[in-house]
Specification:
This protein is of the alpha/beta class. The chain contains 7 helices and 5 strands; from the N terminus they run ααβαββαβαβαα.
Length: 182
């Protein structure tokens, strides 16, 4: 690079090419980056709850979604968090730890960069597949947006159908499929 100007990224962060980086600049950049990162699911009970919800499949991953757990299961710090929460799962049959971690990093970055459109009161789990490792990054973000949109469209259609037939949300199983022991 010719000239005395620092790179554009350094200019935008306020870092001078000739001087050391001050701690205040580093904390500012970490705050802006952390504000863009979606909230995470961390506990096993949260993942198990979402696994019981609805699913949508695409070539690179399966998306699971469920409404947020009740307050009895959550600690008080998570009640203050607003926005959709995401969890990532990559099974061991996909590959070794290096491969699994690379897939998780790609999915995390795709979540951070895309406007995923997740609902405020929903939890999501992305179960990765092997093509997530090699597919185009732009396509990964598009798959994420499209799958979330499809999931919510199908949930809205299902809830409209239930309300028109008089079924409530808690008894979603049709009467013909109910099993009783005699």
């Amino acid at each position: 690079m010719t000239g005395s100007q620092p790179p554009a990224s350094a200019q935008s962060l306020g870092i001078l090419a000739s001087g050391p980086v001050s701690p205040s600049i580093l904390s500012r950049t970490s705050q802006t980056r952390s504000s863009q990162i979606p909230l995470r699911l961390k506990k096993r009970a949260q993942f198990l709850h979402v696994a019981k919800g609805t699913r949508r499949h695409c070539e690179t991953f399966t998306l699971q979604s469920a409404s947020r757990l009740s307050e009895a299961f959550e600690n008080e710090s998570t009640h203050k968090e607003q926005g959709p929460r995401f969890g990532l799962t990559v099974t061991r049959k996909i590959g070794n730890a290096v491969v699994r971690n690379k897939i998780k990093r790609r999915l995390r970055e795709a979540l951070r960069l895309t406007n995923h459109g997740g609902h405020q009161d929903r939890d999501y789990v992305i179960v990765a597949r092997l093509p997530a490792l090699t597919c185009d990054f732009v396509r990964l973000g598009q798959d994420l947006q499209r799958t979330i949109r499809q999931l919510h469209d199908s949930n809205q259609k299902r809830s409209k159908a239930r309300s028109s037939t008089g079924q409530d949300e808690t008894h979603s199983r049709p009467a013909a499929l109910s099993f009783t022991r005699t």
